[in-house]
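re: that chain from earlier
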Amino acid sequence: MTKTQGFLISFASLLLAALLFFIIVSEHGLADLVFLRQERGKLVEKAEQLTRENHSISVEIDRLKNDPKYIENIARKELGMIGKDEVILKTPSQPEPKK
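^ sequence. v structure.
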């Protein structure tokens, strides 16, 4: 191997190493690709979660529009309402024993 061939091989090796380094760490390189794939995975997961929430809300809206028993149940639980012919009986609360 002559001196010129050795120089060309060294230069080609250095050029390949620089190119590999550039591919890995450049703005659109391998590191960026890995980051973007992770970000895409997170976004897909978030989109699936939002789809499930939208479906749940859609079902609840439908029940609120069309299910009188569901509306009655919500009124009883959240607003403390009672039916037309119902009576609330309150028992006297017992005082706590003194120590």
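Residues 27-81 form one domain.
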